[in-house]
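Batch manifest, entry 17 of 40.
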Amino acid sequence: MPIRAALGILAAARLAGRLAAGAAAGVVATTAMSAVLGALHRAGTIDRQPPQLIVDTVLPHLPEDKNRVLAAVAHFGYGTSAAAAYAAAVPVAARGATSGALYGLLVWFCGYEGWLPLLRVMPPAHRDDPNRVGTMVAAHVVFGAVLGGVLRNIARRARRRHSPSRPTR
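Output type: structure tokens
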């Protein structure tokens, strides 16, 4: 096999590993975000969570029980996809709670000032209810911080596993 082809396969394998680690970390980060949203929903800070609003807008005739299931699946699908993108784009050395939190803000901004208003699911964040804006910003910061932290820990464990063992005395 020519060297270029071998290097291409190696690069693809590394990318696949980064995407898989990102998706796994995304499940953890989305779970943390969902816990924050659930607590804030119970506290009365927000009335309906955005994943349900999105499903209601896109599929308005869907029964409520199916809406909840689809909203959860869509939320975790979006979270794992966003997390995989972070893992693919952010160098291992730059991963952590801080870069993750900043990434969470970027995800929030793209959604709440971008595609959600375009789909007419909700108004742009700068015109929305300040309580919902604050809630969603906080939830996305939690998502990103957890994502960055989990991926940093995965990288540390991988380095320890692949580093030569220290000789015992």
